[in-house]
Design brief:
Keywords: ATP-binding, Cell cycle, Cell division, Cell membrane, Membrane, Nucleotide-binding. This protein is an alpha/beta fold and 226 residues long. Helices cover 33% and strands 26% of the residues. The chain has a single domain (2-218), classed as Rossmann fold (3-Layer(aba) Sandwich), CATH 3.40.50. The longest helix has 16 residues, at 170-185. The chain binds adenosine-5'-triphosphate (ATP). Adenosine-5'-triphosphate (ATP) is lined by residues 11, 13, 15, 17, 35, 37-43.
Length: 226
């Protein structure tokens, strides 16, 4: 569950990126977040990750109020959340296997079980045969799928994606959406920030629309109009 109660975010330069947002995403939902460049989408995702703190209001994730968690609890909180970025942020001097294993290594996951988990994640994204290759030997769509395998290797209950199809052509973007739906079908809560309104419309899922830091539409309650 993700809940925002009257959340505002003012950056230290005084800019108010979010202006009093309230919404709730239930476990197992798949929701899109849309809005113009600068509308506040990445800020909203960073608040869920506890990478930024709200300047007003509260963010709750799985019943934990992020205003109240200590620095020590933050790594545990982040382990429950997988994140997929537009530019996938892979390490180019490491193999596909090593890139996907990284979150497990960081969290101290037992080494003897790492191979099984990494291969299960690579299998889900259809890249099991490429585990010994390096990122630059893969296409852009394949690199993005490695980023998704890395995001799900910890089996997070929540998956966030920030413009995950921004660099991909329509066919590859549709493949990525198909993968996301498969994760959602096994219970992963998904929040996907995207500008691609056509792609979003085709998914037939709930859409939250931001404009200048305000929630201007929630398609569960009214038709989205951005
Ligand atoms: N650390 C920061 N300090 C000051 N202002 C910031 C900071 N991060 C973001 N902003 C500003 O907050 C606003 C919202 O940014 P944000 O990245 O959340 O938007 P976005 O909707 O994700 O945009 P895009 O689609 O272009 O990534 C922008 O005007 C941005 O310049």
């Amino acid at each position: 569950m993700i809940r925002f109660d009257q959340v505002a975010k003012r950056y230290s330069n005084g800019f108010e990126a979010l202006k009093g947002l309230s919404f709730q995403i239930d476990p197992g939902e798949m929701v899109f977040l849309t809005g113009h460049s600068g509308a506040g989408k990445s800020t909203l995702l960073k608040l869920i990750m506890a990478m930024e703190q709200p300047s007003r209001g509260q963010v709750l994730v799985n019943n934990t109020n992020l205003n109240r968690i200590s620095d020590r609890q933050i790594p545990y909180h982040r382990r429950q959340i997988g994140v997929v970025f537009q530019n996938h942020q892979l390490l180019f001097d490491r193999t596909i296997y090593e890139n996907v294993a990284l979150p497990l290594v960081i969290s101290g996951f037992p080494q003897q079980d790492t191979g099984r988990r990494v291969r299960a994640a690579l299998d889900k994204v259809g890249l099991l045969s490429k585990e010994n290759r390096y990122p630059l030997e893969l296409s852009g769509g394949e690199q993005q799928r490695v980023g998704i395998a890395r995001a799900v290797v910890n089996k997070p209950r929540i998956l966030l994606a920030d413009e995950p199809t921004g660099n991909l052509d329509p066919a590859l973007s549709a493949d990525i959406m198909h993968l996301f739906r498969q994760f959602n079908e096994v219970g992963v809560t998904m929040l996907i920030a995207s500008h691609d309104l056509d792609l979003i419309k085709r998914q037939g899922k709930r859409v939250l629309a931001l404009r200048e830091g305000e929630l201007v539409a929630d398609s569960q309650r009214e038709p989205a109009h951005v």
